[in-house]
Design goal:
six-stranded mixed beta sheet; Transferase(Phosphotransferase), domain 1; plant defense; Phosphorylase Kinase, domain 1; globular; binds magnesium ion; Prot_kinase_dom; 14 helices; alpha+beta; binds adenosine-5'-triphosphate; two-stranded antiparallel ribbon
Length: 409
């Protein structure tokens, strides 16, 4: 479920350049924002994201069109105990289908899926549903969640995704309880890199898409903590020709939206970079972007943390105390500097997502972290809470993979 304080800002008006279907057009021109292709790209959309009618979008051969009755069976009649989560669009249910025939299978057999069901009528919901089918029907990347198919029958609008067994990053960072042990530093860095690669791919010349809703609840994790972006309902085609931005009404989630976007509605890939900076800061601090339960002056994470981030010693005030001893000071400083860079008030000073990816890659490879962890096992065990075990960096990661089990119906 989305962060309770992260409310949607407001609904956008119908796409201004919309075709009859409500899906806006694009061409293959350069957007002039300097974004280059991502080295992480392993596959590309074979169909260019050109102006497509609703029929064209839905007939996308790679997506399976499910009958409502099939998805009813697959989710055991949308049983409440199959609910994986709930968001603004509707509820998400766990289900099972036959891997080859893609028809409903006996619960517990075949392939596990996640079924998102739109639970309200109206144009806005339909449009977000169609945008998801349009983008995820064409974009393929290891760091984007895979859309298997959809259902469009009478008033029913559903989406069928690959099942992400560890749920959302939001749950791992902010849920408390025995199921959710604090995510270790190494896994946080791994997730940050995976999510950054997903955004870099979207911004690349190949896709040219602005995601517009980057937040912890939209970063899903598979069994190996590979991060995948979900929710393309708010995504927009990037600017084309010599345009520097796309003009839109402001929509997104409080706490994550870039200041210039909030002020002007001008959307660029750098708006996503700002949101990435917010999420990176959430990962480093273990605090929510907006948290009204904190003392006055600490409600807004970015405003509160910004003065501490450039200082060698003061960054400890920001870093999640549950991570103590799992990272070296140098690596933590670099990660904090990267977050600060992404959060630059002026968009042009922010890095591109390709640059973010290479910085994060350097941080993963930094032997400093491992050395420090191996030489200070006691600090490690302390940071793991009350486990009392002395763990090497590798076993820490394994411990993370074992301990951070996601409760599933
Ligand atoms: N493919 C999936 N596999 C496993 N769990 C999923 C999947 N998709 C969504 N979920 C779970 O369902 C929850 C709700 O997802 P959803 O995208 O509908 O809303 P949200 O991102 O939490 O909020 P918002 O509507 O503000 O974007 C997620 O946080 C996640 O826990
Ligand atoms: Mg979501």
């Amino acid at each position: 479920m989305g962060n309770c304080w992260s409310v949607r800002i407001k609904a956008e008006s119908p796409f201004h350049s919309a075709s009859a279907s409500g899906v806006n057009s694009r061409n293959n021109g350069k957007d002039g924002n300097g974004l280059s292709g991502s080295s992480s790209r392993v596959s590309s959309s074979s169909v260019p994201l050109t102006c497509r009618s609703e029929d064209e979008i839905l007939q996308c051969s790679k997506l399976r069109c499910f009958a409502f009755s099939d998805l009813k069976t697959a989710t055991r009649n949308f049983r409440p105990d199959s609910v994986l989560g709930e968001g603004g669009f509707g509820s998400v249910f766990k289900g099972w289908i036959d891997e080859h025939a893609l028809t409903a299978s006996k619960p517990g057999t075949g392939m596990v899926i996640a079924v998102k069901r739109l639970n309200h009528d109206g144009f806005q919901g339909h449009r977000e549903w169609l945008a998801e089918v349009n983008y995820l029907g064409q974009l393929y990347h290891p760091n984007l969640v895979r859309l298997i198919g959809y259902c469009f029958e009478d008033q029913h609008r559903l989406l069928v995704y690959e099942f992400m067994s560890r749920g959302s990053l939001e749950n791992h960072l902010f849920r408390r309880g025995s199921y959710f042990q604090p995510l270790p530093w190494n896994l946080r860095m791994k997730v940050a890199l995976g999510a950054a690669k997903g955004l870099a791919y979207l911004h690349s010349a190949e896709a040219k898409v602005i995601y517009r809703d980057f937040k912890t609840s939209n970063v899903l994790l598979d069994s190996n903590y590979n991060a995948k972006l979900s929710d393309f309902g708010l995504a927009k085609d990037g600017p084309t020709g010599d345009k520097t931005h796309v003009s839109t009404r402001v929509i997104g989630t409080y706490g994550y939206a870039a200041p210039e976007y909030l002020a002007t509605g001008h959307l660029t890939a750098k708006s996503d970079v700002y949101s990435f900076g917010v999420v990176l800061l959430e990962m480093l601090s273990g605090r929510r972007a907006i948290d009204k339960n904190r003392p006055p002056g600490e409600h807004n994470l970015v405003e509160w943390a910004r003065p501490y981030l450039p200082h060698k010693r003061k960054i400890f005030r920001v870093l999640d105390t549950r991570l103590e001893g799992q990272y070296s000071l140098g690596v933590a400083q670099k990660a904090a500097a990267l977050a600060l860079h992404c959060l630059s008030t002026e968009a042009r000073f922010r890095p591109t997502m390709d640059e973010v990816v290479s910085t994060l890659e350097q941080l993963q490879d930094n032997k400093d972290t491992a050395k420090k962890s191996e030489s200070e096992p006691k600090e490690h065990s302390r940071s793991l809470g009350n486990s009392g075990h002395e763990l090497s960096q590798r076993s820490l990661e394994e411990a993370g993979a074992r301990k951070v089990a996601y409760p599933r119906p």
